[in-house]
Amino acid sequence: QVPLVESGGGLVQAGGSLRLSCAAPGGTFSTASMGWFRQAPGKEREFVAVINWSGGSTYYADSVKGRSTISRDNAENTVDLQMNSLKPADTAVYYCAASQRYGLGYRASQYDYWGQGTQVTVSS
Questions:
Q1: What is the distance, to the nearest Å, from the Cα of residue 109 to the centroid of all Cα atoms in its chain?
Q2: Residue 95 phi/psi, 5° resolution?
Q3: Span 102-111, pLDDT tens digits
Q4: Alpha-carbon distance 24 to 6, whole Å?
Q5: What is the C-alpha separation between 85 and 11, in angstroms, rounded?
Q6: What percent of the chain has pLDDT over 90?
Q7: C-alpha 92: how far from its chain's center?
Q8: Are 113 and 22 in contact (CB under 8 A)?
Q9: Disulfide: which of 6, 73, 92, 101 matches 118 by Cβ 3.0-4.6 Å?
């Protein structure tokens, strides 16, 4: 199983920005859809954003739409999530995931590979 590695999390004040990155150092996901999910303490893992294999289509959760941008670089085998105007409600562990089966999946069950997650904490 090829691992995914997230980076870029941290502590930021409300209204600030963060850029999360996901890399696949052991393989390639150029034909996979790539998604970001998040999980806050005591809550279920929830969908954040997804980008299809070519980067031509994206889909966002309503909670981040207009504040976040997902992008990918297939040559570098990376996927980024730029998050702006962060709110305390965005505090969670953010996970990168890859799906070989679905184009723009928004359910965790639609994804085949996962990273270990990166913590994002937004202070008020």
A1: 15
A2: -120, 140
A3: 989 999 999 9
A4: 9
A5: 14
A6: 90
A7: 12
A8: no
A9: 6
